[in-house]
Amino acid sequence: MTITEAGVFEATAFESAAQHAVAGNAVTAYRPVFTTGPAADLFSSYVVTTALSAAHELGLLDLLNAERVIAIGDMAGDKLDPGVVRGLLVALGWAGVVEVEGDKAVAGPRFDDVYAARGYYYWLVRGCGELFATAPDVAYRDRRVGEFFHRDMRAVAIGSRLIGDTEVEPLFDELLAGLGVATMADLGCGSGQRLLRVADRNPQARGIGVDIAQGAVTLARDSIAEAGMDERIRIVRGDVLNLPEDPGFADVDVITCVFMGHDFWPMQRCVDGLADLRRAFPNAKRLLLCDVVRTPGAPGPDTTIFTLGFELVHALMGVYIPSREEWLGAFRAAGWELVAEHPVTAPPSGILFELRPSVSPALAD
């Protein structure tokens, strides 16, 4: 209970005025108001997001996308526990993603939109879930040293690939086709799918992928071996901000960097890192850098998918998210000239910057 200025007791969100009312010898039941409505929806939304991530990894979403109606037993098959499968589907039913009808699962009215966005949920839960869970630990200043957090980088790579497939990767394909790539370096290559697509579409093209995360490197190497592209594509484990010496870098004519450019920041480190790319890849004619820029203002009802998660994750990791204007300043200072900007809506606030080396006396020394 709370007390108003007039001294009157007033029910709070956790108490009802009827809590102390007596009807005969019975006390009226306590009825907290948060058990349904917005507060309850927050709880259920978390469960649904977790179920979406699991359903994606287990292949359940792909099955339902292909079949639209499928027996739950068939979805479980010989390997999965049918009770767990049903539990995941029932959770998805709360959000209208799936409708459970007896022993069958049916694609619900929101299935197609959610399926298209599955990469965001997988990135959030499987990729970054541990970091969110340990947010209280990493909040302490004295603990933010060394490798103070952990993410599942294999899941981050898979989620990022699915996120990019909607709009970013088709845009890359269009631009790369017009450039006539001979050798491409993909920085923060993740699963290696961009390199594979370029090599598949251009039989003469070669590729080098660089990633610091062992999980992503292993995933990319496995994908390249499975595609039979080992002789044309190499994956190097290394830090993009401290690139290893590699004689193959001199052959690179196009550099791509997707969803990891913010790792260059803050400003001076970004300028130095972008300038180092010119030295490491002396014959590069283009740098195609795509990233999500910082959103202005406070979040509200129109806040887009990904935005809150992306910005909070990077705050937890201590990674600065630059604005568009800050990126443009860094490019100029590092000796890269802007050729074109290509805004994208998926992911929200994304921009693909197309750049070429500019004449810079400082870099020519």
Describe the overall structure.
The protein has 365 residues and is of the alpha/beta class. The chain folds into 3 domains: 30 residues, no CATH class; 81 residues, Arc Repressor Mutant, subunit A; 200 residues, Rossmann fold (3-Layer(aba) Sandwich). Helix content is 43%, strand content 18%. It contains 16 helices and 14 strands. The strands form 4 sheets. A 7-stranded mixed β-sheet has the order 10-9-8-11-12-14-13, with helices on both faces. Strand 3 and strand 4 form a beta hairpin. Helix 1 crosses helix 6, helix 6 packs antiparallel against helix 9 and helix 13 crosses helix 15. The longest helix has 20 residues. The N terminus is likely disordered.
SSE blueprint:
Layout: E1 2-3, E2 9-10, E3 22-23, E4 26-27, H1 38-57, H2 60-67, E5 69-71, H3 72-76, H4 82-94, E6 98-101, E7 104-107, H5 111-116, H6 118-127, H7 129-133, H8 135-138, H9 153-165, H10 168-179, E8 183-187, H11 193-201, E9 206-211, H12 214-226, E10 233-237, E11 254-258, H13 267-280, E12 286-292, H14 307-317, H15 324-334, E13 336-344, E14 350-357, H16 361-364
* Average pLDDT, all residues: 92
* Relevant CATH superfamily of the largest domain: Vaccinia Virus protein VP39
Number of helices: 16
CATH architecture assignment name of the largest domain:
3-Layer(aba) Sandwich
**Strands, count:** 14
Strand content: 15-25%
Structural class: alpha/beta
Distance between the termini: 73 Å
Indicate the CATH class of the largest domain. Answer: Alpha Beta
The helicity comes to: 40-55%
Give me the Rg, rounded. 25 Å
| Helix-strand string | EEEEHHEHHEEHHHHHHEHEHEEHEHHEEH
User: What number of domains?
Assistant: 3
Tell me the strand order in the biggest sheet: 10-9-8-11-12-14-13
CATH topology of the largest domain: Rossmann fold
Q: Looking at the structure, what is the overall shape?
A: globular
What's the story with the biggest beta sheet? 7 strands, mixed
